[in-house]
Amino acid sequence: MIAPPRVRLVIEDGLDDGLEASWDPCLAALERVFRRLGAGVTESETRSGVVGCPRCGRRNRVPALGTGVPVCGNCRHVLPWIAAARDDDFAAVAQRATLPVLVNLWAPWCGLSWLARPVVEGLALRRPGELKLVEVDVVAAPEETRRLGVRAVPTLLVLRDGEVLARRYGVAPSDELRDWVDATLR
């Protein structure tokens, strides 16, 4: 089978943006558009996660930042909200959220953190529209970890309006974790 030849295309639009050429004209145009858009948009505003809709199964991109409740673009059903945060955007992602926030502080080198993640994410997936899960890698967010006084991983925090309501260390079964969150949010 012979592969089609790759053609280099130079777009002459008068812009000196460092993009010499691309073999795909559509890709070259998209690169220029995203570079222009990216100039005024911070990285935390563009970060998002992909969540499947519990009703129709369609995959939806859910931004880390936002107010209200995320809904499916296809069937308008409420979606679970799972986001990641670092030092530079923790306040915007977790502390200014309109929903109660469950913060999972974990470390990539910690085996207990890897055991706790499916349990914590399962809780968030079963409570769309009621709870926002924010996962914080303690290695990537040392300042926020220090500010929150984290002494062990995994650590779970429940926040409402930026205030820490409860703190829990270690791994727990899903029923116990659900009861803990329910008791905290009452």
Notable traits:
alpha/beta, two-stranded antiparallel sheet, 6 helices, globular
Description of the molecule:
With 186 residues, the chain is of the alpha/beta class. The protein has helices at 25-38, 43-46, 90-95, 111-125, 142-147, 174-185; strands at 48-52, 59-63, 81-85, 101-106, 132-137, 155-160, 163-169. The strands form two sheets. A five-stranded mixed β-sheet has the order 3-5-4-6-7. The longest helix has 15 residues, at 111-125. The chain is globular, with a radius of gyration of 21 Å.
Explain briefly what this protein structure is.
Helix content is 31%, strand content 22%.
- Report the major sheet: 5 strands, mixed
Mean pLDDT across every amino acid position? 82
Give the helix proportion (percent range). Answer: 25-40%
> What's the helix count?
6
Order of helices and strands: HHEEEHEHEHEEH
The end-to-end span amounts to 65 Å
Number of strands: 7
Instruction: Give the strand order of the largest sheet, numbering strands 1, 2, ... along the chain.
Output: 3-5-4-6-7
Domain Thioredoxin: 81-186
Family: Belongs to the thioredoxin family.
Keywords: Redox-active center
Protein name: Thioredoxin domain-containing protein
